[in-house]
Amino acid sequence: MTRVKGGIMAQKRRKNVLERAKGYRGIRSKKERYAHEALMRAGRYAFAHRRDKKTDFRQLWIVRLNAAVRANGHASYSTFIAKLKKNGFQLDRKVLAQFASEHPEIFSRIAKKIV
Question: What's the CA gap between 91 and 21, in Å, rounded?
């Protein structure tokens, strides 16, 4: 078989790595080896932080709900959620938090129905 040199593909690969590392500080955006290491680390963090983002938003919704629930005369968030489930409401925390922050009159009507 004839010999195939990989120069063109290697250049494409290096160019792709350096393009993706554009904007990184120092040598991490200039040298292919360091750029590749930085991209691998960034990919690991991106994967983990996509999971963390879901937790962070759920915590934010709970904090917003707790404030709105107490403002509407209920004792606490946990008792409100327990009563909500007992009465058969199918709204999740995200929707309830949106109502509490963007449409407080709707949320207050929901809170009054829960006794």
Answer: 42
Domain range for 49: 7-113
Contact 69, 76 (CB under 8 A): yes
For residue 1, tell me if it sits in a domain. Answer: no
Triad 76, 77, 81: Cα angle to 5° = 120
The predicted model scores a pTM of 0.72
b/e burial code for range 6-18 (CB count within 10 A of at least 16 → b):
eeeeeeeeeeebb
Q: What does the pLDDT profile of the chain (115 residues) look like in tens digits?
A: 888 888 999 999 999 999 999 999 999 999 999 999 999 999 999 999 999 999 999 999 999 999 999 999 999 999 999 999 999 989 899 999 999 999 999 999 999 998 7
Q: How many domains does the chain have?
A: 1
CATH of the domain at 70: 1.10.1900.20
